[in-house]
Write a structure and sequence with these properties.
single chain, about 130 residues, mainly alpha, disordered N terminus
């Protein structure tokens, strides 16, 4: 019983009164739904959600790109895969310090992936585990 009361008081202190007027009484609303989040859409279409917390002198953010397969349509696919390559393999000018050396590694990485897939398909778990 004490834990429930303490949790309720803590939630009330942290979130009580933080939302817009009337939101606190909305049936089914949660403390998170009552936070004073500002939603902003920039001219370039970027959508930003801001929750100011004056108590901590830090910044935290999450970046999400709407390029997953759920957003793709027939005839317009591959954006997620392209983004993956840009983020993790870079380009000739971004994300690398030695393009020629990395291109050699990409070939080895692709060959290793092919070997792992072949080993799995053939039931060679020892090889797959060794290379995975």
């Amino acid at each position: 019983m004490r834990i429930h009361v303490l949790a309720g008081l803590t939630a009330a202190l942290l979130f009580g009164g933080a939302g817009p007027a009337g939101a606190q009484d909305a049936p089914g609303s949660t403390p998170g739904e009552r936070l004073p989040v500002r939603e902003i859409t920039l001219e370039n279409g970027m959508h930003v959600m801001v929750l100011e917390r004056r108590g901590a002198p830090t910044v935290s953010f999450v970046v999400q790109y709407r390029v997953g397969s759920i957003q793709e349509h027939l005839g317009n696919t591959g954006a997620a895969h392209l983004l993956e390559h840009l983020l993790f393999k870079g380009t000739t000018t971004v994300g690398t310090t030695d393009v020629a050396a990395e291109r050699v590694l990409f070939g080895h990485m692709d060959a290793t992936e092919d070997t792992v897939k072949r080993a799995r398909a053939e039931g060679d778990t020892a090889t797959a585990r060794r290379l995975d």
